[in-house]
From TrEMBL:
This is Phosphate transport system permease protein. Keywords: Cell membrane, Membrane, Phosphate transport, Transmembrane, Transmembrane helix, Transport. Coiled coil: none annotated. Its main location: membrane. The chain crosses the membrane at residues 28-48, 79-105, 126-143, 163-182, 203-224, 272-295. One of its GO terms (molecular function) is phosphate transmembrane transporter activity. Part of the binding-protein-dependent transport system for phosphate; probably responsible for the translocation of the substrate across the membrane. It is found in: Cell membrane; Membrane. Residues 83-295 form the ABC transmembrane type-1 domain.
Length: 306
C-alpha cells in the first residue's frame, strides 16, 4: 500500500514537472528564435526612417550622380563613386576566390586522400578565422609594396590590393562549401562514371560538378555577398578618394568605408551628411539582401535530389 502511494506521488510529480516545462520551454525557445528576427526588423526600421530624411532633402538625380563631396560648404551626395568602388573591389576579389576556391574543392573532393583532406581542409579554413583588420594591414604593408614593383603607376592606396586580399580571405568559403556540395553527390554515381571508363578528371567535370552545381553557385553568391560587405580591408588599403574612376591603380572608396569614415566623427548628428550614412547603409542592405535571395533561388532551382 505504501509502495503504491510512493509510485503515485512520483508519477504525479513527474507529470507536473513535464507539464510546466512543456509550457515554459517552447516560449523560451520562441523568444530566442525571435531575437534575430526582431533585430533585423529594428535595423530595417532605423535605416528606412533615417534614410527617408536624406532622400526627402536630396533629389535622386543628385544621389545617382558622380560628384561626392559631403563635407564641402555646398555639399554634393552622388553615391556612384561608392557603388563603383564597391563593385570593382568585389569583382577583383571574385576573380581570385572563385577559380582558386573551386580548384581546391575539386582537389579535396576528388583527388586528395582521406588523411590529407582531414589535415588540409582545417588548415585552409584557418584563413576564415583571421580578423579582417589583419588582412587590411597585410594588403597595405605587404601586397601593395609588392605590386608597386610590378606596376609602377600603382598608388599607395588603390583598389587592386584590397580586392586581391579580399579574394584570398573568401577562398575558404568557396572551397569549403563547394567541397561539401561535391561530397553530397552519391558515391554510386561517382563509381558508375569510373566504372564506365571515365577518368577522375572527367568524372569531376562531367558528373560531380553538374550534380553539385546548386551548392557551388550558392557558395559563390554567398562569397560575393561577403565581399560586398567587407569593411576593414578596403578602409585601410583602398583609401577614401571619392572620385568616380574605373582605374584600379587609384584610390577608391566603397560604401562600407564611407560609413566607417563618417561614423568616426566627420558628420555631426542631425546633419544631411549624417543621414547620408543611413542612405548608403540602406542601399548596401538592399544589395546584400538581393544577393542572398538570389543564392536561395539558385540553390532551390538547381538542387539535385537523389
Amino acid at each position: 500500500m505504501e509502495d503504491t502511494q510512493v509510485r503515485d506521488k512520483i508519477r504525479n510529480n513527474s507529470a507536473q514537472k513535464k507539464h510546466i516545462s512543456d509550457k515554459v520551454m517552447p516560449n523560451f525557445f520562441l523568444l530566442m528564435a525571435s531575437l534575430s528576427v526582431l533585430t533585423t526588423l529594428g535595423i530595417v526600421i532605423i535605416l528606412v526612417t533615417d534614410a527617408s530624411k536624406f532622400f526627402s532633402a536630396v533629389p535622386l538625380t543628385e544621389v545617382f550622380s558622380t560628384e561626392l563631396a559631403p563635407l564641402r560648404k555646398d555639399p554634393s551626395f552622388g553615391i556612384l563613386p561608392l557603388i563603383s568602388g564597391t563593385i570593382i573591389t568585389t569583382l577583383i576579389a571574385m576573380l581570385v576566390a572563385v577559380p582558386v576556391g573551386l580548384a581546391a574543392a575539386i582537389y579535396l573532393s576528388q583527388f586528395a586522400s582521406d588523411k590529407l583532406r582531414r589535415v588540409f581542409k582545417p588548415m585552409m579554413e584557418v584563413l576564415a578565422g583571421i580578423p579582417t583588420i589583419v588582412y587590411g594591414f597585410f594588403a597595405y604593408s605587404f601586397v601593395t609594396p609588392l605590386l608597386m614593383k610590378i606596376i609602377p603607376s600603382l598608388q599607395a592606396k588603390n583598389a587592386l590590393s584590397p580586392g586581391l586580399v579580399m579574394g584570398i580571405m573568401i577562398i575558404p568559403m568557396v572551397a569549403s562549401l563547394s567541397e561539401d556540395a561535391m561530397n553530397s553527390v552519391p558515391e554510386i554515381i561517382r563509381e558508375g562514371s569510373l566504372g564506365l571508363g571515365a577518368t577522375k578528371l572527367e568524372t569531376a567535370f562531367k558528373v560531380i560538378i553538374p550534380g553539385a552545381i546548386s551548392g557551388i553557385m550558392a557558395s559563390i553568391v554567398l562569397a560575393l555577398s561577403r565581399a560586398i560587405g567587407e569593411t576593414m580591408i578596403v578602409t585601410i588599403a583602398s583609401g577614401s578618394s571619392k572620385n568616380f574612376t574605373l582605374d584600379i591603380t587609384q584610390s577608391m572608396q566603397t560604401m562600407t568605408a564611407y560609413i566607417v569614415e563618417f561614423t568616426s566623427g566627420d558628420a555631426g548628428s542631425g546633419t544631411l551628411g549624417y543621414y547620408s550614412l543611413y542612405a548608403v547603409g540602406l542601399i548596401l542592405f538592399i544589395f546584400t539582401l538581393g544577393i542572398n535571395l538570389l543564392a536561395q533561388y539558385i540553390s532551390r532551382k538547381y538542387r539535385e535530389v537523389y
